[in-house]
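In response to reviewer comment 3 from the previous cycle, which asked for concrete evidence that the modeling workflow produces usable outputs, we include below a single protein chain processed end to end. The sequence was submitted unchanged, and the resulting structure tokens are shown without manual editing.
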Amino acid sequence: MRKDRELSNIEANERRLLQNIKVADLVQVTAFNKDKMTVDVKPLVKREISGAYVSPPPILSVKIAYVPMVAKDVEIKPDIKAGDIGAVVYLDLDSDGAISSGSESQPVSVRLHSGDDAVFVGVIASGL
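The workflow returned the following structure tokens.
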């Protein structure tokens, strides 16, 4: 019986820790910067805080992950519009150094699963 209780406590503690890790969010685009290839987004699923559901804050200047396409030597970039629904993933560690240099680097901060390291991974068809 004691082992069952210990296991339950370990699982409950692990669940609490995991609840604080952001992995991905369903979002709505509020702005698209085609020159910088970033979007501002609003998470669509509310979070429970102390028994009440609240809207998460917007995430600004999210880098866009896209597959470059070239047609007749012209690069075709995505045409994302305000109102589009998509997904962002939160990278495990601070990605600033690696993204700005394009090469392997150490994290420049201790950020973990931060909105500052979110990446927009694409538009999702909604209402289907």
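Residues 22-123 form a domain with the OB fold (Dihydrolipoamide Acetyltransferase, E2P) fold (CATH 2.40.50.230). We consider this sufficient to address the reviewer's concern, and the full set will be provided in the supplementary archive.
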